[in-house]
Write a structure and sequence with these properties.
By secondary structure, the chain is an alpha+beta fold. The protein has helices spanning about 10-20, 45-50, 70-80, 90-120, 130-150, 165-180, 185, 195-205, 210, and strands spanning about 1-5, 30-35, 60, 65-70. A four-stranded mixed sheet has the order 2-1-3-4, with helices on one face. Helix 1 (about 10-20) packs parallel to helix 3 (about 70-80), helix 1 crosses helix 6 (about 165-180) and helix 4 (about 90-120) packs antiparallel against helix 5 (about 130-150).
Length: about 220
């Protein structure tokens, strides 16, 4: 049985859980999840650091193989466990998705992460509201690129759902929740109709709703 370390409120753990669900793999049947990170601790113990020396979640152990970095875990899972061909394997779809995995890490997430952590993990007295505003508005700008792509195709990599949609959707969902919760701190949220359509599509056609936060997990 695979073992997955990480709390359900982590965006990077949510990526893995969503992917596992799409593959038809069930918690406590096909894999065991162990809470780790934030108030659960565990991630800085000597035992965990042997799995992931970064001290971050998620970490996945499958037999002798130990993986960290959530996007790498997704790549492994669909290669190893996609028996029902949930995700297309042709080069256009596969690498069309791959580029979005990298874009999520390098372009979308850094400014959004700053705004997210600033508003949910940082004590109010220590928050840099100017940096939060700039980070959120930079995310508005980045997502216009994705919106333009989704005007021409149903999913990030073309006609079919892929793991690129997973990593993007969870980030976009936090972008929406941040503005809903702190509208005066984020500034305006860009009206991106193609992204809105795509999110609704994911809600009805995938396991998105099972893993996307309904509200922000704010650490006081």
């Amino acid at each position: 049985m695979m073992h997955l370390w990480g709390r359900k409120s982590s965006i990077n753990v949510q990526k893995v859980l969503w992917c596992l669900a799409e593959l038809g793999l069930k918690e406590n049947v096909d894999f065991e999840r162990l809470d780790a990170g934030l108030h659960f601790g565990v991630n800085h113990t000597p035992e965990f650091l042997k799995l992931n020396p970064n001290g971050l979640v998620p970490a996945l152990q499958d037999g002798d193989l130990v993986l960290w970095e959530s996007n790498t875990i997704l790549r492994y899972l669909i290669q190893q466990y996609d028996k029902n061909k949930r995700f297309p394997t042709d080069n256009v779809s596969k690498y069309g998705s791959e580029k979005w995995l990298d874009w999520q890490l390098t372009t979308l997430w850094p400014p959004l992460r700053g705004a997210f952590l600033g508003l949910t993990r940082t004590p109010e007295a220590e928050r840099d509201y100017d940096a939060i505003y700039k980070g959120y508005q930079a995310t508005n700008h980045s997502l216009k690129l994705l919106d333009n792509i989704l005007e021409k195709q149903s999913y990030c990599s073309g006609k079919q759902f892929h793991i690129g949609d997973i990593v993007l959707a969870l980030g976009v969902h936090r972008w929406v929740l941040l503005h809903q919760t702190f509208p005066e701190k984020t500034g305006p949220r860009a009206e991106l109709k193609n992204i809105a359509r795509w999110l609704k599509q994911l809600e009805t056609e995938t396991c998105f709703n099972d893993f996307a936060d309904k509200e922000l997990n704010i650490v006081k």
